[in-house]
Each structure stands twice: as structure tokens, then as C-alpha cells.
Design goal:
With about 200 residues, the chain is of the alpha/beta class. It contains eight helices and six strands, in the order βααβαββαβαβααα.
């Protein structure tokens, strides 16, 4: 697979845990979150690169699509993992060749902050996609905008959870579109709002 013209797309996504803040759980559409991640990966991976922070609810979905595509696209995925979590890395991590391990700091928040800073500094991004998630989505939205102000931002509000809060409260009004709120045809959504714009 040729790498010329391959652009980096940041994926911020997770499935909210039931024991976390109710404001994320109450609106989360778990089926939509999974569908959106699978559709994004299917549309993007043959042409561009997805970079993400290795959330254990998302990494297996990306590997599932890679297997289905049956293409040599290891260079089209880049996974960041903090060594803070080294004892609980998902088994699917072993399926990826391109993993960047970031240093363990004094606490979980400091370790995650370092991972995000390193990920955003080391890569040029053309776009960021936000799906479902919890407080990390809100943090990553703010940080990503700061590091990559010219990149396309795509919060998929129909997946609910933190992404809906980002869409409602942080996403510029002039960029809002009802398709981001109500359209569950994610393959065509990502073609129009992502692939056609980068």
C-alpha cells in the first residue's frame, strides 16, 4: 500500500463505563458508537492513517476492521499507549506493529496528559473525529484544537455521551449540521464530512 498522500486522522472515542459520570452514560448510544468506529475505520484505512490513544473499548474494533479489509495497512494505524497502563494493555495491542509507548508519570492524569501532548506534537493531523466517550473526549477536543487549529473537527453527536456535550457546548455554531446529530449512515457521513474535505 502506497503511503504517499496518506493523511493523519485523530480518533477520540470510547464507550462510557456504567460506573462513571451519569451525564456521559445517559445519552450514550453504544451501538452507534461501535457502528461509527467501524464505519470510520472502513472508510479511512485504505487511504489514510488513524492515530488514537488506545482505549481498550476501541482498539479491538479497529483490528476487527483491519482483518476484514485483508490489506497490508499496518502503516495506516498508529497507536499511543501510556506505560502507566502496561499491566492492563488490551490483548489486541499485539496485533499492531506501530505502537508508541509514552512515559509513566507520577499519576494517571499526568501520564495521560503526557501521552496526548506527545501524540499531538509528533504528528501533523488533517482531521479529528470524536465518537461517544467520557471526560477524555472533552479534554482531547480542547487540546487538539489548540495544537491543530486548521484541522477538520468532526464530533459525531448522534453517538451521544461526551461527544454530544462537545457538539452542544464547544463546537462552533456555524459548523453544526443536523446530519451530525441524526444521521446513522456513518459510511456516507464520513465520506462527505471527512474524506471529501481532507
Amino acid at each position: 500500500m502506497a503511503t504517499e498522500g496518506v493523511k493523519n486522522i485523530f480518533l477520540s472515542a470510547s464507550i462510557p463505563l456504567p460506573n462513571r459520570d451519569a451525564k456521559y452514560v445517559e445519552t450514550a448510544d453504544i451501538i452507534a458508537i461501535r457502528d461509527a468506529v467501524i464505519a470510520l475505520t472502513t472508510v479511512v484505512l485504505p487511504y489514510h492513517r488513524i492515530i488514537w490513544g488506545g482505549h481498550p473499548s476501541i482498539t479491538p474494533l479497529i483490528y476487527y476492521v483491519m482483518e476484514k479489509l485483508d490489506m497490508n495497512i499496518q502503516e495506516h494505524v498508529k497507536l499511543y499507549q501510556s506505560l502507566w497502563f502496561k499491566d492492563i494493555f488490551p490483548p489486541d495491542n499485539n496485533k499492531f506493529e506501530n505502537i508508541v509507548f509514552t512515559k509513566k508519570e507520577d499519576s494517571i492524569p499526568a501520564s495521560i496528559k503526557l501521552l496526548r501532548e506527545q501524540m499531538f506534537l509528533e504528528n501533523e493531523f488533517s482531521a479529528a473525529v470524536f465518537i461517544g466517550g467520557m471526560d477524555g473526549i472533552e479534554d482531547e477536543y480542547r487540546m487538539f484544537k489548540e495544537y491543530h487549529p486548521e484541522a477538520v473537527l468532526l464530533p459525531i453527536a448522534s453517538t451521544g455521551a461526551a461527544t454530544k456535550l462537545v457538539y452542544d457546548n464547544l463546537f462552533p455554531h456555524n459548523l453544526k449540521n443536523t446530519r451530525l446529530e441524526k444521521d446513522y449512515g456513518y459510511m456516507s457521513l464520513f465520506q462527505k464530512f471527512l474524506m471529501d474535505k481532507i
